[in-house]
Amino acid sequence: MTMAQQQSDAHAETEQAAEVGQPMATESGQPVNAHTEVAGHGGDHHDGGAFPPFDSTTYGSQLLWLAITFGLLYYIMSKVALPRIANILEVRRDRIASDLGEAERLKRETDEAIASYEQSLAEARQKAHGIAHTAREEAKTQFDAEFAKVEADIAKQLTAADEKITAVKTAAMGEVDAIAQSTTEAILEKLLGSGVAKKDIAAAVSAAKAN
To answer: Any idea what DSSP says for residue 2?
Structure first.
């Protein structure tokens, strides 16, 4: 039997013993527990190794994957995220500029409306003052005309009254003379018992009225 066949048979026995949980014999004839050996071998390997990120033998691959990851991340950021962020900022800047322009336009229109309102108000006040002054002048002119008319009517009525009073006075005075003459004539006739000439009575009345 060759060496290879012996090793193959030994390996097969070892596997069978491991499957049934029985100890296997070494070349010296002492049994060996397969689980203990495997566990010990694994423990030796773990204790002898280092943490993968700190293993100097993997620095090259780590740097390579770091460069690949950074490149992919940079490509994604530059092609996807950054353009979207720039677009959002551009839209926001345009909206702010549009809002500022609209606010400026509204402010300008408001200022123009206020100026127009103040100008219209000043013109209305000036027009109102003019209308009031014109109305006062017209009222004064009309009042003066009415007052002159009333004065003319009063003067006319006074003149007519004076004329009427003069006529009444003249008529009364004429009647007084006649009454005086008749009364004097009656008194003299009663006193003297005879009539007196009317000419003498008239002369006496005129002399008495003169005194």
So the answer is: -
Structural domain boundaries enclosing 200: 162-210
32 sits in which H/E element: strand 31-32
Give the number of domains in the chain: 2
Q: Per the domain annotation, does 22 fall within a domain?
A: yes
The residue to which tokens 């066949």 are assigned: 5
Core vs surface per residue 66-78: b (16+ CB within 10 A) or e: eeeeeeeeeeeee
pLDDT in tens, 162-186: 888 888 878 777 776 677 767 776 7
Low-confidence ranges of the chain (pLDDT < 70): 1-50, 176-177, 181, 185, 188-202, 204-211
101 within domain boundaries: no
Q: Which SS3 state, helix, strand or coil, does residue 134 take?
A: helix
